[in-house]
Amino acid sequence: MTESSDLRLKKIPLNNGSGQMPALGFGTLIPDAAVTMTATRDALQAGFRHIDCAERYRNEREVGEALQAGLAAGGIAREDIFVTTKLWNSNHRPERVGPAFAASLDRLRLSYLDLYLIHTPFAFQPGDEQEPRDRDGNVIYDDGVTLLDTWRAMESLVDNGKCRAIGLSDITLDRVLPIYESAKIKPAVIEVESHPYLPETELLEFCKERGIIFLAFAPLGHGITPGLLEDPVVLAVAARIGKTPAQVLLAWAIQRGTAVLTTPKSAARARENFDISALPEDAFNEINGIQTRQRLNPVVNTGVGGFLPGKPA
Ligand SMILES: NC(=O)c1ccc[n+]([C@@H]2O[C@H](COP(=O)([O-])OP(=O)(O)OC[C@H]3O[C@@H](n4cnc5c(N)ncnc54)[C@H](OP(=O)(O)O)[C@@H]3O)[C@@H](O)[C@H]2O)c1
Prior knowledge:
Layout: E1 11-13, E2 20-22, E3 24-27, H1 33-46, E4 50-52, H2 60-74, E5 82-87, H3 94-108, E6 115-118, H4 147-159, E7 166-169, H5 173-182, E8 189-193, H6 201-210, E9 213-217, H7 232-241, H8 245-255, E10 259-262, H9 267-274, H10 281-288, H11 299-302
Parallel strand pairs: 3-4, 3-10, 4-5, 5-6, 6-7, 7-8, 8-9, 9-10
Antiparallel strand pairs: 1-2
Helix pairs in contact: 1-2, 1-9, 2-3, 3-4, 7-8
The chain binds NADP nicotinamide-adenine-dinucleotide phosphate.
């Protein structure tokens, strides 16, 4: 079933009544500080109103600066944008959650967050080292804290009003279930890798049944080629409807009922990636029919991201 409304402006309600998430989001996983600032500015100018950040990306300061300038220049109110950031693995201990949240808020120069996510369900040794490793180079995990302990601390952030919603990321359905069952505040959003090669249908159905927003990252397959941007079905649909492969993939994601993140790094790409429109039903079904299956990001298995290209941990 496709939707025909303007995909660029579509908003999805949060299950706790705290607001709506624009379905089309701009992701800030950009290794270069200067590019982070120009890309954030360009995204706002192109029309993006949903900004996805993370402590782990080490650029919240630059995003905050660009947001402040961009909102002022564009006459955009804080209430008109939806900002997310994420708690990193080395801050899972409950006593570290509040300070980590406050530090992110400070770097982003915001007084509240629309959404705070647990970046991955893997707890690392607590501390300032984002990727603590032993002498053999193995990541040091922390078995002194459970995901539910961390979730309870996240719930307190909502209770004290600085954060409107909370959720999970890089997680599989079997790990979501116990949190969902025990949560006082149910997850509002689950952010995971998803694209035609990794449709995550079971998790998507779970989310839809419970009003949880399924937020897809890597909709363009992280831009890796050969890959989704050169898939013959995607190329054929793009040529037929006069859109680019990126526009086809972003439209498909929103039409199947997910929110989606993309990371254009230039003004032209920001305009391109924002200028999406609904696929005709036959095109939508052709993309659904792609049979290739591929996960690109190993983070869901280890908590260690393949998501900082070119940036040493
Ligand atoms: N929760 C997590 O663990 C997690 C993990 C990964 C990502 N994320 C979030 O998801 C966001 C999206 O990241 P992503 O890598 O998944 O984004 P993406 O948009 O799927 O891929 C970005 C890549 O696509 C290329 N690209 C962008 N627009 C294009 C276009 N119109 N035509 C051709 N190529 C294009 C970019 O190339 P150039 O580099 O040449 O511009 C870049 O290499 C991130 O910024 C981050 O916020 C979250």
